[in-house]
């Protein structure tokens, strides 16, 4: 098996499964989520500030996105960001309408925005990531996608890659099973369990700090950070064993240099 090649950046022969985050790792949808978080929060914050005669401080789609919402379950992301601004809202219920100003209502408002974009735009993939997934499966490794997004099935279908994963743990599954979101390791641990692979023999691939922390907290054999935003140092500090700019770097050299 090529995975045992000592010249590879990763000795893939040591592992039986690879668990991938979705947004920012496999698909270029992180930017869609960042845009929708900003639109939703800015609209809310403007009203909140005006009603209290306070200055409006917009949501920062880089700093606030990565610090408080990236990689987290949707409602956890709402709570995390609002807490950073000292704002408390009632949780509400997951079936709250997007117009309700509850944690769930705001989360549902953001989700509706994402759905509108996904319905009208093509979902792009990171070709280097997809090449790695295909190669790993050829080597006999199991694969899973682990995402906080409830849009995960739609994104996988739109990108044409749903057949590349043996298991999927997404926002719907996490909610149904009562699994806490990242940085808790539970969603990744559930994926490994469904693949019948112990964490020590599985690899986690993430671009979010919370996801890296989840991989480290779960005792996985290897945690790989994908640096899409110039965050290599922060990813390493959070617990990534390896940080790459593109997952194509983890293929055998003869394959990584080929045209996608």
From TrEMBL:
Molecular function as annotated in GO: beta-phosphoglucomutase activity; hydrolase activity; metal ion binding
Keyword Metal-binding annotated: yes
Claim: Cytoplasm is one of the keywords in the record: no
Keywords recorded for this protein, A-Z: Carbohydrate metabolism, Hydrolase, Isomerase, Magnesium, Metal-binding, Phosphoprotein
Cofactor(s) the protein requires to work: Mg(2+)
Family that this chain belongs to: Belongs to the HAD-like hydrolase superfamily. CbbY/CbbZ/Gph/YieH family.
UniProt-recorded name of the protein: Beta-phosphoglucomutase
């Amino acid at each position: 098996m090529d995975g045992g090649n000592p010249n590879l950046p990763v000795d893939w022969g040591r592992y039986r499964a690879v668990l991938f985050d979705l947004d920012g790792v496999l698909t270029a949808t992180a930017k869609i989520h960042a845009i929708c978080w900003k639109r939703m929060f800015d609209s809310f914050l403007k009203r909140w500030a005006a009603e209290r005669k306070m200055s409006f401080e917009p949501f920062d789609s880089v700093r606030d996105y990565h610090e408080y919402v990236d990689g987290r379950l949707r409602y956890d992301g709402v709570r995390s960001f609002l807490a950073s601004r000292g704002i408390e809202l009632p949780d509400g219920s997951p079936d709250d309408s997007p117009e309700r100003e509850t944690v769930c209502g705001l989360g549902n408002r953001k989700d509706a925005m994402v759905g509108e974009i996904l319905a009208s735009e093509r979902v792009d993939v990171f070709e280097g990531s997809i090449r790695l997934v295909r190669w790993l499966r050829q080597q006999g490794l199991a694969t899973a996608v682990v995402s906080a997004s409830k849009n995960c099935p739609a994104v996988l279908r739109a990108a044409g890659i749903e057949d590349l994963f043996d298991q999927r743990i997404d926002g719907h599954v996490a909610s149904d099973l009562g699994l806490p979101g990242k940085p808790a390791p539970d969603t990744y641990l559930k994926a490994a369990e469904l693949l019948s692979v112990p964490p020590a023999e599985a690899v986690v691939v993430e671009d979010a700090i919370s996801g890296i922390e989840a991989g480290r907290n779960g005792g996985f054999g290897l945690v790989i950070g994908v640096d899409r935003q110039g965050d290599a140092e922060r990813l390493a500090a959070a617990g990534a064993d390896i940080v790459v700019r593109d997952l194509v770097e983890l293929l055998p050299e003869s394959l990584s240099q080929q045209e996608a």
